[in-house]
Design brief:
The chain is of the alpha+beta class and 458 residues long. The protein is built from 16 helices and 23 strands.
Length: 458
């Protein structure tokens, strides 16, 4: 049995249950002629064997050695060929790879990713083997288990591992990284939307630890890359017939695509995007009706804060996941998990990481002081259907003294606060929330459902 599948534009596409959804997307992009760093995928079967036996399966190490040697032959360390993927320095050098998880169902940030792995001139292949084992083990970390339980994902699936030559968003002044949606993930409005950082690797973008720039800044920074990205988003949306979310790196002016997945939108955005896709002829109305779940319908008519009640607006940020939530301030995930037993809490963090999963699961809403709408906090909040405000830069989280410093004073842990995940407001107390006006996209979708019932087609 072979556990490794080479990344290439094959006529037949291995299923996501074998190679994971992330690798399935990479194969698809390669078939569409899009730029994907070369590499290979270790199947979910290998993970299941490792989790059962505690060892890499027989034969996998020799397969790994052969696959890595094949990558080395693709990119020989000859300085005159610079720049190219996989070489960390302008003078050439040993091949450097990324080792990423990729389950059959997306689990954003819940498992390990290792970058810049494989200085093969000094540490041989053992570093790669250890990295693969680390990714396999991360399937059973508490954060991953908690996420699967919240999302009803089976625990026995295991994860694939994707090994690719590194591309460097911090190589030079013409390099950077970003995350792009083909439509706004909070509202569903058509148009490229996301975050970008110039001179940074991709983990800085998604972690939320570094203030990001709007994706549209790419148009001025590198207009040719911007045009290529827009064409890519349009091509992917037409291929998948759905809103797409891509992670990318620009290395020395060259666009490289690292991931694509469909969706990742709030419920409100899903309704709008689904109706618009039907209007644009990418899907039919029957398909549109099957894509919208009861949770999406409930989220489509979201409440909004009534800011005329006189309650103090202590800060404004970027609305990253629509909805209104009221609760007591908690400034650590451990505190949020404890306090939630006595009532709703709002988790305040500078940024979140997978280690905050228990706090994110317990909280009614999330506020971060840095990071953008594609940061870890925003992505997880949307997947859980919880209101979130990011980049509330006027706030400072003090975990030592258990408080939040705001322009108007200090907010102690336990203070009641309300957030609006669409408008981005953070308000003292529990002001009145009013139902948003009837969503015209929701009204149209419901009319299609009524028509389908009348015609006996559902």
């Amino acid at each position: 049995m072979s556990f490794i599948h080479q990344l290439r534009a094959t006529p037949e596409l291995p299923g996501p249950e074998l190679i994971g959804a992330k690798a399935h997307g990479l194969f698809t992009m390669m078939r569409l002629g899009l730029p994907v760093p070369p590499g290979f995928v270790i199947s979910t079967e290998a993970c299941r064997v490792f989790l059962r036996d505690g060892l890499l399966p027989d034969g996998l190490i020799s397969e790994l050695t052969a696959a890595l040697s094949a990558l080395e032959r693709l990119y020989p360390a000859q300085p005159q060929l610079q720049p190219r993927p996989g070489r960390p320095a302008a003078t050439g050098g040993p091949l450097s790879v990324s080792v990423r998880s990729g389950a059959a169902v997306s689990m954003p940030g819940m498992m390990d990713t290792l970058l810049n792995v494989g200085d093969r001139a000094n540490r041989a292949d053992n570093q790669i083997h250890s990295a693969v084992e680390d990714v396999f083990r991360s399937w059973n970390t508490p954060r991953a288990v908690t996420y699967r339980e919240l999302q009803d994902i089976p625990h026995d699936l295991g994860t694939a591992v994707i090994v690719q030559t590194m591309v460097f968003g911090d190589r030079d002044s013409h390099s950077g990284s970003g995350v792009a949606f083909s439509r706004d993930p909070s509202t569903g409005e058509k148009g490229a939307y996301g975050d970008v950082l110039f001179g940074h690797q991709g983990d800085d973008v998604v972690s939320g630890q570094v203030p990001t720039r709007p994706l549209t800044d790419l148009a001025e920074w590198q207009p040719l890359v911007w045009a290529e990205l827009l064409q890519t988003l349009d091509l992917l949306e037409r291929h998948f017939r759905d809103v797409c979310h891509v992670e990318f790196t620009v290395e020395s002016g060259q666009l490289w695509l690292l991931q694509v997945r469909a969706g990742g939108l709030s419920g409100r955005a899903t309704v709008r995007a689904t109706v618009d896709l039907a209007d644009e002829g990418l899907i039919d109305r029957r398909t549109a009706l099957t894509r919208v779940t009861p949770r999406h319908l409930r989220a489509a008519r979201i409440p909004r804060l009534n800011l005329e009640t006189g309650n103090e607006v202590v800060a404004r940020g970027v609305g990253a996941s629509p909805g209104v939530a009221t609760g007591r301030i908690a400034v650590t995930s451990d505190q949020a998990a404890r306090m939630a037993a006595a009532g709703p809490v709002i988790l305040f963090r500078p940024y979140t990481s997978p280690l905050d999963m228990h706090g994110l699961a317990a909280a009614a809403g999330i506020v971060t002081t840095v990071g953008g709408p594609t940061s870890h906090a925003a992505v997880v909040a949307r997947s859980l259907g919880k209101p979130s405000v990011v980049s509330a830069t006027a706030l400072s989280i003090d975990t030592v003294n258990g408080c939040v410093h705001a322009p108007g004073g200090v907010l102690l842990e336990g203070t009641v606060i309300t957030i609006d995940g669409l408008g981005g407001e953070v308000v003292l107390g529990s002001p009145e929330a009013t139902d948003d006006e009837t969503d015209p996209h929701l009204a149209r979708l419901l009319s299609w459902a009524d028509q389908a019932i009348t015609e006996g087609t559902t």
